[in-house]
């Protein structure tokens, strides 16, 4: 449950109330993607690290959004995000 809301301190004779607003931090990159060189037929792995665990991410090749398939596997564990490109073809480069 989120911690934002109204909080009250009550003595029985008097009470005081205040609102707590929790601002979400932006998801930033702690470690950026690095260029990857891979031999044909091998698996290329790209990974980066975020400042927030399990933040929603989208992987794209050019303008195409990548979906998990036999070709692409997307893994996300905590703040680490990985893309596996299986069976790399020269035209995938």
UniProtKB/TrEMBL annotation:
Residues 26-93 form the Ig-like domain. Its main location: cytoplasm. Pfam families: I-set. Gene3D superfamilies: Immunoglobulins. It is found in: Cytoplasm. One of its GO terms (cellular component) is cytoplasm. InterPro entries: Ig-like_dom, Ig-like_dom_sf, Ig-like_fold, Ig_I-set, Obscurin/Obscurin-like_Reg. Keywords: Cytoplasm, Disulfide bond, Phosphoprotein. This is OBSCN protein. It comes from Oceanodroma tethys.
